[in-house]
Amino acid sequence: MNRLLDIRNLGVVFGGLSAMNDLNFHVDEGEIVSVIGPNGAGKTTFFNTITGLVHPTSGDILFEGSSIVGLDPSAITALGIARTFQNVRLFANMTVLENVMVSQHCRTKQGAFGALLNTKAFRQEEQEIRERAHEVLSFFGSRLIGYRLDQPAYVLSYANRRRLEIARAMGTQPRLLLLDEPVAGMNPKETEELTKLIGRLRSEWGFTIVIIEHDMNVVRDVSDRVVVLDHGETIAQGSFDEVSSDPQVIEAYLGRPVEKK
Amino acid sequence: MSTIDTAHSMAAPTAATWSPSIKRLAQTAALCGLGLVFISLIGMPVKLNSRALIEPILSRGYASLAWVPVMFGYVVTKQVVLEGMVAQKRGASDVAEGAIVGAGGGLLLGILGILIDNFDLRDPLLNWSPQLLEFITFGNGLGFGVMIWVVIGGLSGAAGAGLHLLPATIRRFIMVIVVAVVGISFLETAATDLLQGLRLEFVSDGIYSKTSGLTIKGSVITGAIAAVALYGSQQLQQRRLTRLSQAPPAASGFTPGAAILNSFGDARSRLKVGLGILALILLPMVLGGIMNELLANVGLFLLLALGLNIVVGLAGILDLGYVAFFAVGGYTAAVLTSPNSPWLTPELPWFVAIFIVVVVAAIVGLLIGAPVIRMRGDYLAIVTLGFGEIIRLLFLSDWLSPMFGGAQGITNIPGVQVAGLANVKGTDPRAVFYLVMAFCAFAIYVSWRLEGSRLGRAWMAIREDESVAEAMGINTVNAKLMAFVTGAILASLSGAIFAAKVGSIFPSSFEILVSVIILVIVIVGGMGRIAGVMVGAAVLIGVLGGPSQPGLLQELAEYKLLIYGALLVWMMLKRPEGLLPNVRRSRELHGDELTQDAWIKSQVAAQDEIDSDGAGSEVPS
Predict the structure, then answer these.
(1) Which secondary-structure segment (H or E) carries B286?
(2) B369-411 residue pLDDT tens
(3) Which of A96, B75, B172, B197 is the 20 to 30 Å CA partner of B206?
(4) B124: containing domain
(5) Does the beta-carbon distance from A112 to B453 stay under 8 Å?
């Protein structure tokens, strides 16, 4: 299998606090990998480091074989890594459609002059951006289309905001999609629906996916492989069943057992 | 009733007994009194008193005070009715409360009269004068003065509170009539000028008195016309709404209602824009020099504000030193065109020079922008503030005076030669206005095209959340620099026209106040909205006046900054989105709702078939 993302001996230090510590991690092309771990384990920092929002203090991150350490977040997105945010961070005053249109920025190139002169190339590109945005939004059924296209993102329900976060990330046309707690705050029905969609993201859109999730049902249903982080280190990895019975993982979640059942 | 009082009495809605909070009444009365005293001491009433609002019965001086108790009377009896709660019955008690507040305020003003009579505080307080005393006492002695102000205050407060007793429609009519009468009276100069241009002198002779202000007959006519206009517009709107709601919903997607609305709306707005442009082209022909000068100033500031709107409104970069680019444009044009320029004297024609101005402004924009743009929020604001001042001080400095003339500036700037047509300069404000308008049209076109483009969307994303925009693949540094440079270019165009219009250029024209006023235009009008910026420029520069340019309300020129400040505070509290609320999608609220309702109906039906276990739980009801 072809290694899409390869992280070697990654370390991140904030002040004196070590958030990531000698972390090794890889994702193969076409895999769905879940990253789990207790609160404060460094999961979101892990995503922030990959996407360039946080710069690592040591180690290397290879995407398709070349290092992306030190690149601007926008450059990393342009290479093909997109993410969603745990605390939904949509462009609240832009419409649903615009949120997905704007995320195609790095795949398009018309500048000010094209817009001012309304050139043919400009109109054609606008048309393509619009069509692709429609296509991406249609992936979520009727949730985000129809009259909602022109609604500002802030009027959406919580679950729809989460969906739009994913749609926006899809708009960047990534190869690797990083989902940060995509079902947090959703009801069981919505969770089930989104779990199915995550599978389709791979089968229909061809994304390789890394997902941070607390909902173990989702983790079990979607992942090929589960990686457990604690204190910025990998403490276990393997299939869901292997990981869920690992004593170190249980300890990280529940604390050291005083007495065994 | 205060909010708290209302909340209390909600528990027992039957308790109709009059239980005003003494403390609250006293507080409001004191505030009302302070307002009256403040306005008196800044000298507004005495200064305005020489002219009438409505010829024999109300002078502008007394009008400048009378609105205060009316407003406080209205405010003190305002209720906040929570949804699902029963509103309290309005009645005589409301009027009584308003009267108490107003009378209390009037009493304080009377006390000010007594104090003026007994102490001399003229040294710190310029307007602590016998004229003010005379104004307060109506020249009839102190006892009469105090009494009459208690009565005036009480009546005005009662009137303000009494507004609550009227149905909303009638209240609206009263508001519109009052605004129309006061407005038409204050705009006497402009209206006379306009009517003269239209050869309708008989109208102005008919409604204005020979000395100043409207006559009684004139105010009745004005009020009646305003009322009819309001009634007409209400009827029109009503008819439109019925037509919309009667359109049958279609099976899916868009409804005919929406289609009618869209085509209707488009045709309407196109017609409106067309009429607006036509009016702007014809208007200067019928206006006199002063009014054209005023319009030209509005245009210059509109051009500046449109540029700043791209920087602040679209890209969210709070630039407090925007005047720097205005200065750069002005000085570059001056150097290139004036024969008196101390450094280079290429004496280029203005239309050639303007291209160089644009290039220079873009370079300066890049030079200032490159270091500044990496900062965010407050830091960026402070740094741009600094750069704005640095540019002005450079033009003022001895070091650069061999190039830009220091405090002497550059004089003898020729006008704009329009091939074989005219020489546009300050002595011909009409031509200046046409020139400015052409450039404003250009700026509006640029703003409009960019807003809907890939770049504009990137700017909006940066304004919303810069880190996320970066994470979504937008090179924020480049995009922000583009916004900064675009803004700089538009400001420099305005500067170049300014130089040609005034004919000379000095560093003192580029004080920090100019930056602030441009920013206020953008904020008051509505950030990020072209129409909002136009309204902002018209209201602030046209009505109140620019930093050194007179507006329509010339009498209030002294209090311009005070009014700016008050307006800004009020806007931030009550209407932070600006005078023109969200017109970004230029869709009317009601049309939107109706479209949505119809859409939901069709979707709910479809949804029920596909998915009978109620997955459509979040379809709004």
Answers:
(1) helix B256-286
(2) 999 988 888 899 999 999 999 999 999 999 998 889 888 999 8
(3) B172
(4) 3-165
(5) yes
